Amino acid sequence: MDPITSSSGKALWSATVGFFVGFAAVALFGPSANRFQQVMGLGPLALGFLVAVPSLSGSLLRIPFSAWVDTTGGRKPFLVLLSLSVVGMVGLTLVARFLYPAHLSLASYPLLMALGVLSGCGIATFSVGISQVSYWFPQRKQGRALAIFAGVGNVAPGIFLLLVPFALRKFGLAWSYVAWLCILATGTVFYALFGRSSPYFQLLKKGLAPVDARARAHALGQDLFPTGNLKDSLRISARVWRTWALVWIYFTTFGGFMALTAWLPIYWTSFFGVSVEHALMLTAVFSIVASLIRVAGGVLSDQLQEGGENTAILALLIALVGALVMTSSEKFELSVPGEILMAFGMGICNAAVFKIVPQAVPQAVGGAAGWVGGFGAFGGFVIPPVMAFAVRNLGAAGYAIGFITFIFLTLFSLSMAWILKYARETVPETGTSVEEMLEIQEHR
Fold this sequence. Notes:
By secondary structure, the chain is mainly α. It has helices at residues 8-22, 24-40, 44-60, 62-72, 75-98, 109-119, 125-136, 142-194, 199-205, 210-219, 230-238, 241-271, 276-303, 307-328, 332-360, 365-377, 379-394, 398-401, 404-422, 434-442. The longest helix is centred in the middle third of the chain and has 53 residues, at 142-194. It is globular.
């Protein structure tokens, strides 16, 4: 009797649903921050930090939780993160129900920041899911599988942004939070019912020795296997220079994606004076395009020779053109295609990065995915306040000039992608021991 429960297909879609609903709290928190600003009297910089703070926990928690996958599999870390996000969402729902608007003041700012941190935990399921899906699928199919996971999951902010204006207008802030809490809780239950760790971890849990579990899992189609514990996974992957090149690229593209999802509603309303509903629709277009094109980026990465690196270079060039347009544009009709170009470039590059990760660090996929996903997504927290500084110093013109940040980030990322392409190293086999791996890294 086959001791393995679930399959690679079920594992992929359960992780995708879990990651999708992990955005629920953040998707509503960002647009509602404008309402909090009005009653609390927040300045541009304070607002920038408030809308960005979920990205802080959503990025940094990716590092330890992704490495945790290398010790227990993905199921437990995934459920812990979703549960923390539910706690944050419950808190925000209570704030919206009992404190907004009459009892909210500047003194409530730390409370909102703390709840934003908890809500952002759902975003951290990304790197857990990346590791989990990588272990379920053979390497020849990983680009497509990872692109489906990340692409469909990342559609969530765009879809939620399309629904938020209707929900706020129809139900009000408090009941909108109740609805989004139900979405998050339902998705958490769905993952709890269907989400499973890869065959190797299931076999270990059933009492098989690591060597026997590896052999059985390999026969079932698993190609990648962890080396060592959580600390070893982070340590081994941290000593691979390519990990840090990928961190920078992902900081620009996925961190930039998260930053713009939070910043674009402010940009469209403040710079061009469009209504909140139209600003959210324009932001939703950016989010959905960047997410769906990620699937095509994953397929392209699988098809091309040196597909990950070549796809990343092409995507970064597209994003660079978009950033140049956004920086120089003072016309609405020009900024819209600029936004679309940035969405295309960021989405395709995000897929390419995680095509490269399992190839670059196969002996510690969880640790590498944690560093890349964690510090990369940290851009979602860092970039909005940087752009807010331009507004504070330059006034309304700063909303456009602030996009120069992406010009510099993209140029440096292009250099990293070229280095990855032309300085490929031979990577050790996944069966290499921890001691051998560390010795190899020391001599490089």
